[in-house]
Amino acid sequence: MPSFNQSTAHPIVFFLTGIPGLETSQAWISIPFCCLYAIAISGNSMILFVIITESSLHEPMYYFLSMLSFTDLGLCFSTVVTVLGIFWSNVREISFDACIGQMFFIHGFTFMESSVLLVMAFDRFIAICNPLRYAMILTNSRIIAVGFAIVIRGTAALVPLLLLLKRLSYCRSHVLHHSYCFYTDVMKLSCSDTKINSAFGLTLVISYAGLDSVLILLSYVLIIRSVLCIASKEERKKAFGTCVSHLSAVAIFYIPMISVSLVHRFAKHAPPFVHALIANVYLLIPPVMNPIIYSVKTKQIRKAILKIFIKQP
């Protein structure tokens, strides 16, 4: 059943926005975006493929990495149709229900990625602080249970959040400020009271990204304390080395998120195309960079990928 505007009894249709002020150049702008999507999709697919097919990578650390690649692929596929649709064909219309569906996947995969990064921090904590019990704690059955928990945690709270949007009336402009449907963007177009929506949305952000970032920080405080107790300088270096890839993934997830918030809050007078470009690139940075980071920094992943392209004599 399509959703209707309560004031007009017509189905609600929103209009997505490309790059304001650069409409004539959108075909050219689409080229780097298309390349970024291609890199993200091929890179994460490659990571998933080598982890599934290479038996030496059937370990907890790489299972969690496969979860990260899966969420990155989900983020890419959640936005690629609308973003490139605008750039290539100027297809801007999106129905309210389709918009709700896109928001579910964008925010769901974002919350899941935050959860995966937290689980990966716990993995590094166990591997460094309690290595003798590592295999005993992170069994295959527990890893599967963690995977299901991440999916449930990332999606369960979104259902009431998005249902709250459906109860609102939309009698203002239906033009969104992004190339995809974003919760706060849609909420601002409502002419109803949105206090409950705002409070619930803020609670979710604090409960997910806020809590996860604090727990990740706590994990690394404990890791650093444990590593500094190691007598051998080489062993300390090796222990820190196993955390570099994960710390980089955490940085490229949280830094763009914070940057976008700061730009929207303190750079309101910046040209509209600046906000649009940053918003589009923000969701692409982690999916593009994570495969590159893990391919470069993780020897086992690098060797497995090279094994595919370089025939062994």
From TrEMBL:
Gene3D superfamilies: Rhodopsin 7-helix transmembrane proteins
One Pfam assignment: 7tm_4
InterPro entries: GPCR_Rhodpsn, GPCR_Rhodpsn_7TM, Olfact_rcpt, OR51/52/56-like
Coarse class of the protein's main subcellular location: membrane
GO annotation terms (biological process): cellular response to lipid
Membrane topology recorded in Swiss-Prot or TrEMBL: Multi-pass membrane protein
Limits of the G-protein coupled receptors family 1 profile domain: 43-294
Keywords annotated in UniProt: Cell membrane, G-protein coupled receptor, Membrane, Olfaction, Receptor, Sensory transduction, Transducer, Transmembrane, Transmembrane helix
Transmembrane segments: 27-51, 63-88, 100-122, 143-165, 199-223, 244-267, 273-293
Domain of life from the UniProt record: Eukaryota
Gene Ontology terms: cellular component: plasma membrane
Subcellular location field: Cell membrane; Membrane
MF GO annotations: G protein-coupled receptor activity; olfactory receptor activity
PANTHER family: OLFACTORY RECEPTOR, OLFACTORY RECEPTOR 56B1-RELATED
Similarity annotation: Belongs to the G-protein coupled receptor 1 family.
Protein's name in the database: Olfactory receptor
Origin species: Cricetulus griseus (Chinese hamster)
